[in-house]
Amino acid sequence: MEYVLPLQKLIEKFCTLRGVGYKTAVRYAFSVLDMSEEEAAEFAGAIISAKRDIHPCEVCGNLSDGEECGICSDAARDKSVICVVEDTRAVMALEKVKEFNGLYHVLGGVISPMNNVGPEQLRIKELLSRINSGDVRELIIATNPNIEGETTAMYISKLVAPLGIKVTRLAYGVPVGADLEYADEMTLMRALDGRRQI
Amino acid sequence: MEYVLPLQKLIEKFCTLRGVGYKTAVRYAFSVLDMSEEEAAEFAGAIISAKRDIHPCEVCGNLSDGEECGICSDAARDKSVICVVEDTRAVMALEKVKEFNGLYHVLGGVISPMNNVGPEQLRIKELLSRINSGDVRELIIATNPNIEGETTAMYISKLVAPLGIKVTRLAYGVPVGADLEYADEMTLMRALDGRRQI
């Protein structure tokens, strides 16, 4: 037997969220029923507003509720360094560190022949025009440390090489706090490779 | 750093769902951003509709999108047996079994002095008037097998005793497929107590 129709529909909507199974969706739907009318209306409004009011920043492609995102429009940031990332989540992760003071460039994915994503689907053209038009000195490529991220990093670095700016890549190595015993061979190899004098 | 405001608001709304922490809420919010405008609008609409169109059934208190729920208005069901449960979730669990063909009565909770819930907050008065007005022969009390469920079952059975109808309680015992080794002592005691000839 199914739930009453409006509840069933809500459960199905919750099922479309990433990582939500049927039982979890049922629990969420009942949470909504436990809300007041106002809370439910605010929840629905937040969904609508997130879709309607958030757009990619015209400069870097990061999420923004204006034309330029908060980072690009921040005069205190160093405009000579651009950190190239796959998506907004990477921007958030790096911003949490509070170490990097440059700008970002969100590619919107990585080169992945498996998923039919080529360089032309990414915001690489926009990256080149940013480099050409400005005083960029360094490009830090911070795509994820996997094959596709690596391929994309190589592709961009080759493309940018003739422009004569410095291109760097995040350091590979053993994660802080991890146990060497559980590190995979590739990571250990890279950590040895990139060893530094103390 | 926080996310852009509309996203931050949506994340906070997802955090109000039962069992959702901040990281999970962020994942869900990004899922919403990945939806099309139509999908997001349908999602928001489903939340509004669930709150607006679902009401307790006038007879049994089960969730319904009309005045009477699908079970109470089903002429094929046996109106002489009422199964008393804590909430709608219990109705759904029992309906899945496809064994019970009577009606339900949803209490809307259990007697719990810890949470300031007394008998007057539950739909016990409505239960008594259903018994008084009709041809109910049996009351199956199916509150959860814990102290509060047990207390509520005892309370109702004492209240109903003078009315001369049969009052039963779901059987306690070891769950099918379980391992005796892992059954707790109370359950094993009840299982021994309720042993049946084979």
Number of strands of chain A: 6
SS strand fraction of chain A: 5-15%
Spatial order of the strands forming the largest sheet of chain A: 4-3-5-6
What gyration radius of chain A follows from the Cα positions, in whole Å?
22 Å
Pick out the low-confidence regions of chain A. none
Helix content of chain A: 40-55%
Q: Output the helix-strand order of chain A.
A: HHHEEEHEHEHEH
Based on helices, strands and strand pairing, what is the structural class of chain A? alpha/beta
Shape of chain A: globular
- Most extensive interface between two protein chains, with residue counts: A-B, 52 and 52 residues
Largest sheet of chain A: 4 strands, parallel
Spell out the blueprint of helices and strands.
Two copies of one chain form a homodimer.
Chain A: H1 5-15, H2 22-34, H3 37-53, E1 55-56, E2 63-64, E3 81-85, H4 88-97, E4 103-106, H5 124-133, E5 138-141, H6 147-160, E6 166-169, H7 185-193
Parallel strand pairs in A: 3-4, 3-5, 5-6
Antiparallel strand pairs in A: 1-2
